[in-house]
Amino acid sequence: MAIDITQFHETFFEESFEGLDIMESGLLNLDIGAADNDTVNSIFRAAHSIKGGSATFGFSEVAEFTHGMETLLDEMRDGSRDVTQESVDTLLQSVDCLREMLGASRDKTPIDLGRAEVLKKDLEKILSSNNSIKSPSENNDSNSTTPASEPSGGSGWEIKFKPYHDMLRTGNDPVRMFRELAELGELSVEVDISQLPALEDLDPEESYLSWKLTLKADVEKEKVKEIFEWVEDECDIELNELSAATDKTDNPANVIAAATTASPQATDKPKKLATPKKPATSTDSASIRVSIDKVDALINMVGELVITQSMIGQLDCDLDEFDNNRMEKLRDGLTLLERNTRELQESVMRIRMLPISFAFNRFPRMVHDLCQKLNKKIELRTTGEQTELDKTVMEKIGDPLVHLVRNSIDHGIEMPEDRVSANKPETGIIELNAFHKGGNIIIEIKDDGAGFNKERIKAKAVERGLISSDEQLSDEKIYDLLFQPGFSTAEQLSDISGRGVGMDVVRRNIRELGGNIDVSSEVGKGTTFTIRLPLTLAILDGQLVCVGSEIYITPLVSIVESLQIKKEFVNNIAGQTELYKVRDDYIPIVRMHNIFGIDAEQKDLEGGLLVIVEGDGKKAGLLVDDLLGQQQVVIKSLETNYKRVDGVSGATILGDGTVALILDVDGLIELSRNPPTSGNTSTSQVREVA
To answer: What's the pLDDT at 147?
Structure first.
């Protein structure tokens, strides 16, 4: 029975993409000139792992392409080649190409071999160039042919290799190791079958054989050990140096000899498929890696719940026997149950939490590429990378962050000569900072660039008819204009930013996550964008409101204020739209009972309660009967269990077991402008179905 190695594909791709991130980060940190050994070694190991795993799983195009990268990196790490800007740029492009090839292999779509061939030629051109570092002897005598150092391997090695029984289960194949050994020199192999059981007792997924290998080659011991490094904890291995006089003849009974003439893809080292502890870097993944600490905490909390349940269970008795002593114990048990449930909820939510470094990791490469394109000098600084937030929030905040950082690079940071003339360092600074504050995560994008010119923003707004020329605006209102659709102060359009497409989308996407964005800026000193987000989308801080017999939950983040209606501030437009004057603003009134088709106690506006909410830059007043209090609620999808209902974003179950609907503020504001037809589903029907 053959082993189905496709079961390891998902792990291989996760590890490979993780390795690509390591390579990219390492390449961006390389200094031009003599290579830093630790950095180059980490890049080389990642490339080597991808190459070996690709060959093991039959992704030959990936393995072949990675081989050229590995060769260049090998010359850098052994000191025979300097690090040049050309080689770093080519390797970075190769990482991009490799990411696309692996993505195509994962998705089972055709690989773009055209780009791969172009980059392979670029790598070959660099390898053939004469920029390698000369040895001391070459520097002293250009005609000398003496090598800089002699291999320490003598005439070869004798290798005793005995795999543990379960080595094959990890996808490692001894034959592939032997093929790679054969690339180093003349290899003879003797197999020991003494531990092979009878056929009926044989398990095809276990290893019973051991080998004695003789490698006749002038290679260093480290080169030989490197071939077995993936299985060093899954086997017994012994290396002994052969004497120069030793001349053993090959054993004609060698059953593996044919394996030494392998195809190029089979010469790669197998990939050990142990699951690493580091979380996956792909932010758009159906799976998530969880640290063992979080799993242990969850198991401990379940244990506490079992103990509490046992304690309460002991109080089971007839009501006639239920005295005050038992009542006190019951109260204690329920208090403990409440605490355990809350801690269990927090432990479960932490499983979905990922460090924001997964979102920040994309920016060093982006800054590097845009600096080269724009001829700017920018240093990227990140702090708070281990600040955690929900996986879903992480996936959705990535694009807004990219737009804001690109905007800072293109418009914020000045050209080096302009910075020098303004008595600034020619290298600009962009800072990404994340930290927790209350029940939210704060993300700051700062730059020390030119800052926003408020007069230019106002002039552009007047030109577009957004404000009048004599209108006085606060700084907050001025910066709010930046988020109007199509608004831009850029003097020149570019493919990076400045087309006025994006800032309105940025704010809309952030608000869809239940967050908001603020801007502060000072001319000549820089700009700061501050994003405030909920830690998770699964739990919501809400205000319970009552309309008739129905209870609704309004997200606290959307509520501006609540007030009692005074008749003199109510205005009617064309006999239909009702507006309420709040200071200098006129806000449309949304009669909740009309929107959802229910009977309400408060139909007369005078004396009614108005909850002022804001969504997508617009405000509205929700007419409700009563405010019931605030609480955290667990969000349940309505579309999954029923169908989409306009003005409702989800549902939750309250403490008394009843279903309460969570209001979609943006949807309600839209409904107030375009009232629903009478045939719409009422929320009473929705609650009954839920």
So the answer is: 38
Cα(49)–Cα(11) distance, integer angstroms: 13
Q: State yes or no: pLDDT of 141 exceeds 60.
A: no
400 to 88, 407, 449: CA distances (angstroms): 29, 11, 20
Neighbours of 394 (CB within 10 A): 20
CB 532 within 8 A of CB 541: no
Question: Distance between CA 344 and CA 334 in Å, rounded?
Answer: 15
Strand partners for 521: 527
Distance CA 414, CA 179 (A): 56
- pLDDT the model gives residue 427: 93
Distance CA 404, CA 503 (A): 8
83 DSSP β-pair partners: 33
What is the per-residue pLDDT for 143? 39
CA angle 362, 366, 367 (to 5 degrees): 120
Residue 323 neighbours by CB distance under 10 Å = 9
Strands 648-653 and 626-634: unpaired
pLDDT band, very low/low/confident/very high, at 321 (cuts 50, 70, 90): low
CA atoms of 81 and 94, how far apart (whole Å): 18
Q: Which two tokens stand for residue 488?
A: 């831009």
| Amino acid at position 214, single letter | T
Task: Tell me which amino acid residue 339 is.
Answer: R
What positions carry a catalytic annotation? Answer: 48, 70, 407
Report the candidate in 338, 314, 337 with the shortest Cα–Cα distance to residue 326: 314
What is the enclosing helix (H) or strand (E) of 103?
helix 85-107
Q: Are 524 and 432 in contact (CB under 8 A)?
A: no
Instruction: Give the pair of three-digit tokens for residue 165.
Output: 């029984």
For residue 684, give both structure tokens.
């009473």
Distance CA 71, CA 674 (A): 65
- Give me the sign of the Cα torsion angle 249, 254, 258, 261: negative
User: 560-596 as b/e, with b when 16 or more CB fall inside 10 Å?
Assistant: eebeebeeebeeeeeeeebbbebeeeebbbbbbbebb
* Residue burial 83-114, b: 16+ Cβ < 10 Å; e: rest: bbeebbebbbbbbebbbebbebbbeeeebeee
Write down the pLDDT at residue 380. Answer: 92
Nearest to 532 by CA among 409, 389, 359: 389
Amino acid residing at 324: N
Tell me the two tokens of residue 440. 């939210």
Please report where in the chains the tokens 């704010």 appear, as a residue. Answer: 507
Q: Let me know: does 589 contact 621? Beta carbons within 8 Å.
A: yes
Residue 612 DSSP SS3? strand
Q: Is the pLDDT of residue 98 over 50?
A: yes
Residues in Cβ contact with 142 at an 8 Å cutoff, skipping those fewer than 6 apart: none
> What DSSP element (H or E) covers 23?
helix 9-29
- The whole-angstrom separation of Cα 627 and Cα 620 is 17
